[in-house]
Amino acid sequence: MTFVMDPLLYPSIVKHGKQLDFHEFSNKVAPYTFGYPPVNNQSFPGLRKQVQRSFHLLQGDSLTPLTESMMGNLMLVFRQDHLGQDGGWRSGSMYDFCHSVMFEATLLTMYGRPPAGRRHGGLDALRDDFISFDNKFPLLIAQIPIWLLGRTKAVRDKLIRFFLPVSCWSNMSQFIRRRAEMFEQYDALRDVDKAAHHFAILWASVGNTVPATFWALYHLVSHPAALQAVRQEIQDVLQQDGVGWNRDGDVTLSRQQLERLLYLESAIRESLRLSSASMNIRVAQEDFSLRLDGERSVAVRKGDFIALYPQSMHLDPEVYEEPQTFRFDRYTQDGQQKTDFYKNGQKLRYYLMPFGSGSTKCPGRHFALNEIKQFVSLLLLYFDLQLEDGQPRASLDPSRAGLGILLPNVDVRFRYRLRTQQLD
Ligand code: HEM
User: CA 223, CA 290: separation in Å to the nearest integer?
Assistant: First the structure.
């Protein structure tokens, strides 16, 4: 595998999307990891194309109903689980808190709710299974035989079976509805295969988002001045729009309002910069000469692997001053988003890459940013937040380096209580 380390050369790799393909790699490892049959053209003609096309239902106009639905579901989970009791500090484990709220709200947003009731039953057990599967995720991606991984196969089967009754759930997102209809066109797909595809999308939609949410919250709670600036910004946006808010009422932040939260967006981007370790892997589809810059080109053979590892750029002191420091406003400048970052005096086209690159860039990235903004906004509006004293700082657990957002090495105890201060 060849690593391209100079970020000024990233555009040369990204623009060769046809010759340097991501899907050859992902089409091999994803079916193995999630337990569905490979989506190749012989058995399922046209399916791969349809799957790709379905991704637009996570973006553009479709992002609005998705974001609205997520807001309602976050509010539902918050209200029923965390806003009920009044007064006094409560304590919890921050990663677990983020996981339980984001997992359930995302599941409801993507897949809808059961025929009876507004929430699915048995979610704690489902989450435990998900976490146990997720812990083995790096080994599965490395294609370690699943039978060597203890109970992982049994746990994965249980997770897949959760999606067997999906067709009778209501309020499903357009994205999942479209995928369910698409799978119905293929007789060769068994119900359990369709359910495995659904499970894969559940993993894609929370596997990185939950740790990203944790890091955004953790950095803000660890930096009270940043937290205060972000909280003020959220309150200002609500006030400017004349949206009264008090803790007994529900908050709604529209897609347009979320777009105006520049400090919050910057804080999330900054935590993504510090925690993301995604590797962009591409496989050469033919022999060709890869032009790197004006002077250099290299010969690439069919089947060669080329990789970008943007974490080295994210932590490069030439690109980012004091790269290990969390600066919540690093991506803002004069009330706008800051987009100019330099290496060797040249402006970088790609300076922040937690979501991959090129045409296979994560299709859920806009939704992910919105849902993290919604979650953090709700917490900051409703609660005073503090880390408990005497704990070691959370650092990055490197065990899934190359695969996305790194998890914290320890969970962190924190305290939260309903705020008394309210907006009118
Ligand atoms: C902070 C959260 C997230 C991060 C950091 C993230 C990151 C990534 C990365 C690095 C890739 C591979 C892209 C490449 O190598 O070119 C990817 C692919 C993907 N992501 Fe995300 N993602 C996040 C959230 C989401 C969400 C919320 C969804 C919603 C369903 C989602 C759906 C997908 C899908 C379906 C793919 C496969 C795309 C393809 O096969 O072309 N992701 N993501």
Answer: 45
Calculate how far, in angstroms, residue 70's C-alpha sits from the geometric centre of ligand 1.
18
Q: Choose which residue among 57, 74, 108, 355 to substitute to test ligand 1 binding: the one with the highest number of ligand atoms within 8 A of its C-beta.
A: 355
345: left (phi over 0), alpha (psi -120 to 50) or beta: left
Q: Is the CB of 377 under 6 A from ligand 1?
A: no
Atom of ligand 1 nearest to the CA of 211: 1
Per-residue pLDDT of 380-393, as tens digits, reads 999 999 999 998 89
| Residue 165 CB neighbours (<10 A) | 11
Q: Name residue 385's beta-bridge partners.
A: 416
Sequence-separated (6 or more) residues with CB below 8 Å from residue 80: 119
Q: Is the CB of 208 under 6 A from ligand 1?
A: yes
Report, as ranges of residue numbers, the positions in the chain whose pLDDT lies below 70: 24, 41, 85-86, 244, 421-424
The domain made up of 2-418 is a member of CATH 1.10.3470.10: no
pLDDT of residue 424: 40
Q: For ligand 1, is residue 283 a contact (CB within 6 Å)?
A: no
Amino acid present at 297: S
Best probe residue, ligand 1, of 57, 176, 179, 362 (max atoms within 8 Å of C-beta) = 362
Q: CB of 352 within 8 A of CB of 387? A: no
57 lines ligand 1 (CB under 6 A): no
Cα–Cα distance measured from residue 166 to residue 145, given in angstroms and rounded to the nearest whole number: 29
- Residue 421's pLDDT is what? 62
Instruction: Flag whether the pTM goes above 0.90.
Output: yes
Give the distance, in angstroms, between the CA of residue 35 and the centroid of all CA atoms in the same chain: 21
| CA 335 to chain CA centroid, nearest Å | 26
Residue appearing with tokens 């803002």: 332
Could you tell me how many residues make up the chain? 424
Distance 361 CA to ligand 1 centre (A): 7
Domain positions in the chain? 2-418
Q: With contact defined as beta carbons under 8 Å apart, do 39 and 47 qualify?
A: yes
For ligand 1, whether the C-beta of 361 sits within 6 Å is yes
Separation of CA 415 from chain center: 25
Q: 35 CB under 6 A from ligand 1?
A: no
Structure tokens at 118: 């507004």
Contact 288, 296 (CB under 8 A): no
